[in-house]
Amino acid sequence: MSILTWYALRRNRQMFTTLMSSLNNSHPFKLTKFETCFLFLICSTPIIHTSMKGISVFFSHEGENTIYGVEVNPNLKGTVSIIKFMVTYLVYPTWVNFLVLIYCLLCKTLCRALSNLSTAIEKCSPQQFTLSRQVDIIKQELEINRVVRYLQAIFSVPSLLLSIAHFGVFISALGTSFNVPTLKIGWYFVIKFSLTLANSFIGLVTFLWMAGGLPDEAAKFKEAFRRKISQRVMFLRKEEEIHFEKYLPDVSSYVLSGWNIIYFQRSSILAVAGTLLTYTILLIN
Known about the structure:
two-stranded antiparallel ribbon; two-stranded antiparallel sheet; mainly alpha
């Protein structure tokens, strides 16, 4: 799954460069302190999980110095185990969480850009909302819409794979927990199980919430624009020759999707939560 995601992104690397250049020119891509700390936590995930596994093995006295049934030196076994766990946790959840973070930050930046446009419209008086001002706002909105199309083209397949990864891991972790004997449930299993469930569920919900913010902000922008047009018509007591409302794109053009299979909207969060709850009940029964 991670290899497919990497390959899909690599194919669109030039488009991704264009996307970042467009954002840096109009809406600088900056990390807050919280986002920086979260990025550091994501990058530290392999080390944290490997350390916990090492401590668990040490205290459980799993002393067999064998790898696939072959007797080896204890130091060699330790080295191989560390590399194995580091690579495993680098693939998931580190790589997946890193891409989800990038995707969410891009969506957040675009949402903020649309929100700033809506705020600018609200602050503008009907007298100041002239044709030239309307043209300027429409141009800015078209630029944002162009970046959104780039985002959709780049992350169409990766976003689908990331969603499947989080959903699949959540169900897999639940299924595994019911098949583990009670005697083998130690502190490491409980912590790993809790972190895996929390990571997959929060990652999936955050994914839907941030991507679903774009159509919401687009709807607010269109409503603000139309309301200001109505106020200006009432103020002038006549309709102007040009109606820029028809140039406003549909809100659906801001709905991101995973390969046109999964549509990321905030209304989908309840559906996902219900699906996960249903699977949980089925596994319990």
